[in-house]
Amino acid sequence: MTDFDSDPSPSGDFDVAPVRLTVDLAALSDNWREMQRRSGRARTAAVVKADAYGLGIEDCGTAFYEAGARDFFVAVAQEGVTLRTYAPDARIYVLSGIWPGQEQMFFENDLVPVLASEEQLAFWMSVVSEHGDHPCALQVDTGFNRLGLSFEDALALAGDVSRPAGFSPVLVLSHLHSGDNPASPLNRQQLELFQQVSAAFEGIESSLSASAGIFLGPEYHFDLTRPGIALYGGESVGGMMPLKPVVKAEARVIQVRDAAAGGTVSYGATHQLSRESRLAIVSAGYADGYLRSLSGSGVPIRTGGSSGAFGFIAGHRVPVIGRVTMDLTIFDVTDVPASDIRTGDYIELFGPNMPLDDVARAAGTIGYELLTGLGLRYERRYIYPE
């Protein structure tokens, strides 16, 4: 079981931080091992882009590396430079490819550009013609209409005997756009196109599946899988229980105040109290990535009848009331015994008691956005594997 209170000696700063994050690296490692198991005979990479989904590329990258990951994916080259220190002999793929002027950064840090356009491909051909062999990967678009060579151009490249001798792709990859919906027939369409691409690049490893695709079965695994959100405890397939929770976000209670029935709460007076109430004002707001759309009232998403977010404190789920503001959020704690909550306590914004994706749904978004939007003010504590 994940135990977010297992560290016996959190720092003094952590004890008094306005907002704080606990990241369970043991759970993170276990989630990677579980995705490795589900990937069958395929190797399993770790996707650590966006600062490891907001949780810290240094600590998360180290945890994945020590768990056994030797393939990593980042979004931009600078992330790869940072990761190289913590994954010394891993293969690090840069999903946005390479641009003129970045050659030395890639060579010196042994980064693998994922060539995602005809322009990048032409530039890379000139680079290897001048500097010699350096590994690269090819991204092929099989229906996403995002990055990648077209299906036709990829097949033509596979048969092009005039390629420079130093042009040595080590991976060809594509990306499913509807993997989170296992019933979508578009998954099969993309699979069949990618099977043709993989066959055309015989002898070169292939990769199609991120987190959601792994759950579609062995046909989708190829040589290398690329889990991301599942590693961090988020949902990758709608309605499927995620793996172990990895992160707990908390905010400190600044004040507990009594408020009279009929009074209003927060900007715009959009919430009117129907009873004598106790309110907990906590030090987190949209500047901390606790989105304004999580408000209990006064935002467009609430007009559809969906409820706002909840927090968790003293064994109770408590609702957000009124609008979330830049630095503060107000929770209704009337139903929490007065002796169980006081100034200085912490309320869980999301974590083991408030699942990340439940909170995201209340905001009309996905867990990815909550994690990657975490603000700079969080004091962080990491729980390391024993």
UniProtKB/TrEMBL annotation:
Q: Which cofactor does it need?
A: pyridoxal 5'-phosphate
Q: Which SUPFAM superfamilies match?
A: Alanine racemase C-terminal domain-like, PLP-binding barrel
InterPro entries cross-referenced by the UniProt entry? Ala_racemase (IPR000821), Ala_racemase/Decarboxylase_C (IPR009006), Ala_racemase_C (IPR011079), Ala_racemase_N (IPR001608), Ala_racemase_pyridoxalP-BS (IPR020622), PLP-binding_barrel (IPR029066)
What species is this protein from? Neorhizobium phenanthreniclasticum
Instruction: Tell me the ranges covered by the Alanine racemase C-terminal domain, including all copies.
Output: 246-383
Keywords carried by this UniProt record: Isomerase, Pyridoxal phosphate
Q: Give the metabolic or biological pathway.
A: Amino-acid biosynthesis; D-alanine biosynthesis; D-alanine from L-alanine: step 1/1
Among its keywords, does the record have Translocase?
A: no
Provide the binding site for substrate. Answer: 146, 326
Q: What is its EC number?
A: 5.1.1.1
So what does this thing catalyse?
Answer: L-alanine = D-alanine
Enzyme active site: 49 (proton acceptor), 267 (proton acceptor)
Can you tell me which family this protein belongs to? Belongs to the alanine racemase family.
This protein is called: Alanine racemase
- N6-(pyridoxal phosphate)lysine occurs at which residues? 49
Which Pfam families does this one have? Ala_racemase_C (PF00842), Ala_racemase_N (PF01168)
Q: Name one GO molecular function term.
A: alanine racemase activity
Q: What does this protein do?
A: Catalyzes the interconversion of L-alanine and D-alanine. May also act on other amino acids.
